[in-house]
Amino acid sequence: MKRLDVTGDICPIPVLKTKKALEELKEGEELEVIGDYKPALENIRRFAENNGYTVILAEETDNGFRIVIRK
Description:
This protein is an alpha+beta fold. The chain has two helices and four strands, in the order βαβαββ. The chain has one domain: Translation Initiation Factor IF3 (2-Layer Sandwich). The longest helix is centred in the first third of the chain and has 12 residues, at about 15-25.
C-alpha cells in the first residue's frame, strides 16, 4: 500500500495530490492518505467515488483524517 501524507495542506491541494498518486497506481493497488485538514476527508472521498475508485476506509482521527482508496 502506498502512503500519501498531505499534512499541512488545505483544499484543493490534498485532492490534487491524491489524484496524482492514484494515477500512478496499478489497478487493484491501494493508497492511504493521511492529513490534518479534516474538510479534505469528504472532498477526497467524493473525488474517489465520482471517479470510480473504491473507498475502503474513511475516518477522522485525533490529528486529522485517514482514508484508504483502492484503484
